[in-house]
Amino acid sequence: MxxxxxxxxxxxxxxxLLSEDGTxxxxxxxxxxxxxxxxxxxxxxxxxxxxxxxxxAQGWLRIxxxxxxxxxxxxxxxxxxxxxxxxxxxxxxNT
Length: 95
Known about the structure:
The protein is of the alpha/beta class. It is 45% helix and 23% strand. The protein is built from five helices and five strands. The chain has a three-stranded parallel sheet with strand order 2-4-5. Helix 1 runs parallel beside helix 2 (41-56). The protein is globular and about 30 Å long.
């Protein structure tokens, strides 16, 4: 993802993380947020839903490369306590 993920952009995030028919996506997902400069609460809801679906399928969702402003939001809402966050995609894949 690149740029801002707000209410208008949450659909793109949702398409990337969730299937349209509600079936479980691939069980191992790394969301590379290194190009994301802003996120709002609508994106948090997408991450929580994706995390629940993947976890129910015995998989995992990890976040990688969050810039400082995005990492701060993830921390403030406690999402970093639910979804593992890593500095790089490589670290997220190899953990």
